[in-house]
Amino acid sequence: MKNVLQTARQMSSNGLAMVSNMSSIFTSLQVGSSASRKLLSEEEADLFISMKQRSLMGLQPNAVVAQDGSGQFKTISAAIASVPQKNNQPFVIHVKAGVYKEY
């Protein structure tokens, strides 16, 4: 057991040394450096929203789910079950904050 643990420690140490060396190489080449990474601004993030998603954001919800009873449904499953059969229109379900423990 002692030999196995010592071998595992040596292999982990070697792996970490390799990662450290690769990181310094990438930094010197300015490839994948963390300095070039940033979060998108709100304007930049808006570019990734499709036109269909944009149109859905302006719709009023067809169903509201709230665990506290302030919505039409207390479970997400019940709201999904309320979607009409063969519906060909967007059906927007607003789920209020909470932890919903269901399938």
UniProtKB/TrEMBL annotation:
One of its GO terms (molecular function) is pectinesterase activity. It catalyses: [(1->4)-alpha-D-galacturonosyl methyl ester](n) + n H2O = [(1->4)-alpha-D-galacturonosyl](n) + n methanol + n H(+). Residues 62-103 form the Pectinesterase catalytic domain. Pfam families: Pectinesterase. Pathway: Glycan metabolism; pectin degradation; 2-dehydro-3-deoxy-D-gluconate from pectin: step 1/5. Keywords: Aspartyl esterase, Cell wall biogenesis/degradation, Hydrolase. Gene3D superfamilies: Single-stranded right-handed beta-helix, Pectin lyase-like. The keyword Hydrolase applies. It comes from the Eukaryota. GO terms for biological process: cell wall modification; pectin catabolic process. This is Pectinesterase/pectinesterase inhibitor-like. The lineage of its organism: Eukaryota, Viridiplantae, Streptophyta, Embryophyta, Tracheophyta.
